[in-house]
Amino acid sequence: MKDVSVSVLLFAVAAPLGAQSLLYRPPNLGGTWVPDGGVVQFNFVHRFYVSPAPSHAVVNFPNFTFAAGFGHQVALGAHFATRSLIVGTGNGSLSSNETEVYGRWRLHGAEGQPGFGVAVTPAYNLLAKSADGELGVDWTKGALTLHGAARAVSRRLGKSGDAAAAFAGGVNARLNPYIGVSADVGSFVSPTVRSAWSAAINFLIPGSPHTFSLQASNATSATIQGNSEGISSPKNVLYGFEFTIPLHLKRFSPWFHGRPKPVTLGAPAGTPVAAEIRISSLKFATDTVRIAAGQSVRWVNGDPVEHTVSFDVEPGSPLIPPNASYIHRFDKAGTYPYHCTPHPFMSGVVIVR
Length: 353
Ligand SMILES: [Cu+2]
Known about the structure:
The protein is mostly beta strands. It has 2 helices and 21 strands. The protein has helices spanning 2-14, 253-257, and strands spanning 39-50, 58-69, 74-81, 98-108, 115-125, 130-141, 144-153, 164-176, 179-188, 196-204, 211-217, 238-248, 264-266, 275-280, 283-284, 288-291, 296-301, 310-311, 325-329, 334-339, 347-352. The strands form 3 sheets. The chain has a 12-stranded antiparallel barrel with strand order 1-2-3-4-5-6-7-8-9-10-11-12. It is elongated, with a radius of gyration of 24 Å. The structure holds copper (II) ion.
């Protein structure tokens, strides 16, 4: 049983999450992650500082990221910051609303898998009227992911100067499948400015594909430029949080295609069933069922997404489509822990007497 729980833990760490995870990306790095085709990513970063007494006014730095996956490891997206870094009277200094549109092509690797990931991110900063770009590399082994990025911009935001290069590096350390810490630093090379930095504690919200982080940083926007220069006045530390929300367009398919036909997988239809377990809201409705040897259990997928019933000790189901069911017959007494492969946080146990 101990071996089983260890292997489940390793599996949960190694599995791709189908969503950008803050356990695999520090706050001020775009990373190499690309949403799957048909997935829309929404990230919300909110940072702030509190001005001194007597006003105690909270000054907010909200940032929104939208990105859509198009398959083939390609995504298109945009960052929007309502209070970007503006210093002096240079490029873009008439507004503080900073928008960057970007594409990302992941050349190698997959989030959550060991080894290297490489992605190129061409971008255009509308406020600075600057063609920007980033080459991102990350390397994952076990609980650690190291990140590096090389950046170039054609017109610096808030400066009158021309093109510039920037470099950034960061690290993620995962304490368990649900909690990690991360830090990063990034800076323009020349002319030198205050580096952007961040430190964060990151959470995967159990039972969901969402991640959340609590952060300290001096960066005001999530763009390539904003991640390469820190705020220095009137405050030089901002506190805040980030929330990542993947929207799987497949989930909305019943709106357009109606309910799919019920099908039965596993044992032939008509097999007597001793227990039924409903799958809904990314959960097995019954944690533990007890049956006698020779009896069968039926799982019914009431979710609009595919799940599996994957046993730790013997072969389980294929992908179970929405509205389909899977029947498994247990011939031998024993304890059969299982989980869902696409959603490793979903688990249950069948106890056979
Ligand atoms: Cu699942």
